[in-house]
Specification:
The protein is of the alpha+beta class and about 140 residues long. It folds into two domains: about 35 residues; about 80 residues, Alpha-Beta Plaits, CATH 3.30.70. The chain has four helices and four strands, in the order ααβαββαβ. It has a four-stranded antiparallel β-sheet with strand order 2-3-1-4. β2 and β3 form a beta hairpin. The protein is elongated and about 60 Å long. It binds nickel (II) ion.
């Protein structure tokens, strides 16, 4: 890997706290932790550009027998079949299901589809995690 070295001036207490946190997270060195922080910042900034391509993982929990919720969830996915990459269904217990839906496309479209699914009556909890897969992440 082609790398550049650079120095950072930082108050000792701040570094101490940083080391503590990254050790807990499992990082073996500061460089990898700082690289990941930078990548996270890049993704965060890129996700503000709604025209860019993004990919999201939408996780929802719902009661499958309530108010045709399952039908509505499937319908929403078929309406956007070009953006839906994959769906994983998990039966949590007698009543509850979890669905993990991978959505790909323009960031604004991914968010719109996720919002539509989350807002379906009967969906108890929903969360979208988004990422961009670009060369800028190096
Ligand atoms: Ni189920």
């Amino acid at each position: 890997m082609n790398v550049v070295r650079f120095g950072i001036s930082i108050p000792p207490k701040l570094l101490e706290k940083f080391d503590e946190i990254i050790k807990e997270k499992g990082y073996t060195n500061r460089s990898e932790a700082i690289r990941d922080l930078i990548r996270d910042l890049i993704v965060k900034e890129e996700l503000k550009k709604s025209e860019k391509e993004g990919i999201g993982v939408l996780s929802i929990v719902y009661e499958h027998h309530k108010s045709h919720v399952l039908e509505k969830i499937i319908e929403a996915q078929h309406e956007n079949e070009k953006n839906i990459v994959s769906t994983l269904h998990i039966h949590l217990d007698k009543e509850n299901c979890m669905e993990v839906i991978i959505i790909r496309g323009k960031i604004m479209d991914v968010k719109k589809i996720a919002d539509k699914i989350i807002s379906i009556k009967g969906v108890k909890h929903g969360k979208l995690i988004m990422s961009t897969a670009t060369e800028s992440l190096a």
